[in-house]
Amino acid sequence: MDRTLERAIGRVVEGTRHWSSARWSSRAGLADAMHALVQDLADVCAEAEGEPKREVPRLPNDPHLPDQLQVIGLDLLDQADRLTEDQHARIEAAILRARAALF
């Protein structure tokens, strides 16, 4: 799963990394969908680490959202061997929701 997870997160990061502020604001909900994905992955990562869930700060500049996703994605990949089947399913569902909203 970790290679599949890495590829899935990488596709979202690379698919949005070049977006300008205008692109992020061109359609309602794009930035919200990306931030929701980051928050969902952060929640699963916290669970896997045995830590409490924390609110991921909303960055003031939307073009930085792909970087934020990449960072939490790397943190999540560090926990890949601890993830349960339910957590894997929640990650996949979160990525699918985000991709549907973004692309």
Summarize the structure.
The chain is mostly helical and 103 residues long. The chain is built from five helices and no strands.
Judged by helices, strands and strand pairing, the structural class is mainly alpha
Helix content: 55-70%
List low-confidence stretches.
none
User: N- to C-terminal separation?
Assistant: 23 Å
Shape: globular
What average pLDDT do the residues reach? 96
Number of helices: 5
Encode the helix/strand succession as letters: HHHHH
Largest sheet at a glance?
A: none
How many domain modules? Answer: 1
Tell me the β content. Answer: under 5%
The count of DSSP E runs of length 2 or more, i.e. the number of strands, is 0
Gyration radius (Cα, Å) is 13 Å
What this model shows, in words?
The chain is mainly α and 103 residues long. The chain has one domain (2-102). The protein has five helices and no strands. The protein has helices spanning 2-16, 21-25, 30-49, 65-78, 85-102. The two termini are 23 Å apart. The relative contact order is 0.23. The mean pLDDT is 96.
Secondary structure topology:
Layout: H1 2-16, H2 21-25, H3 30-49, H4 65-78, H5 85-102
Annotation keywords:
5 helices, 103 residues, mainly alpha, single chain, globular
